[in-house]
Amino acid sequence: MPDHACPGCQTSRPLDFDFSMAFQPIYDVAAERVWGYEALVRGLAGEGAGAILSQVSPEQRYRFDQACRVKAIDLASQLFADADDLHLSINFMPNAVYEPAACLRATLAAARKTRFPLNSIMFEFTEGEVVTDVAHLRNIISEYRRVGFITALDDFGAGYAGLGLLADFQPDLIKIDMHLIRDVDTSRSRQAILAALLHIARELDIAVLAEGVETEAEFMALKAAGVRLFQGYWFAKPAFEALPALGHAALAALQNGQAA
Prior knowledge:
The protein has 260 residues and is an alpha/beta fold. The chain has helices at residues 7-11, 49-53, 61-79, 105-114, 134-147, 162-168, 178-181, 188-204, 216-225, 248-259; strands at residues 20-28, 33-42, 87-91, 121-126, 150-156, 173-176, 207-210, 229-230, 239-240. Helix 3 runs parallel beside helix 4 (105-114).
């Protein structure tokens, strides 16, 4: 049923393409288990996100953002059936949200239909998307928290606005961009920046996730620095419409670390 409180519902153009999702695990080193999975847009034949995003016109942005949420929840509810304590991370476009409460109706309906717990859903917005109305973004975060969702700032450190956004509002979690993660085990500058970010996060009571981890050395350096949540190819590559198992190298290293 159209939502007349939301202009996006009235003016957005229907999608003329279909898509699905791949899932990549997020590992909690303190709990020694998979914390959840991020849903990543893919084509029906497994094409990467870029191939799909390039088809989204400005007039379709609202419909696409809404469809991504519903698709991710529908698939995750099936894949998570035997593990009801997993979290689902969904990317969203702040500039595709017109009225926070109204634009959540399809999301809430999908969660009710599949009985997916609201407090197990995390919404990520990226530092890379240009946000022209900080007050509007603050309202979105406030409404999402009121409903019970976890909020996250993705790609933190990739753009110029990260610290400014963090000063204006505080999400529940920040995802440190892979550029700061790469070779962190040998880079003094990256280690210093990471230490500063972890200090800020502790002061603001924000969880930290390291994304784009590709080597055991990076993982060990990040773990020693105090990072708890991890994501990246070293743990597992995304799996199309499936939950991938942790890679053999990561699993062996984690088991050895637990035994030690």
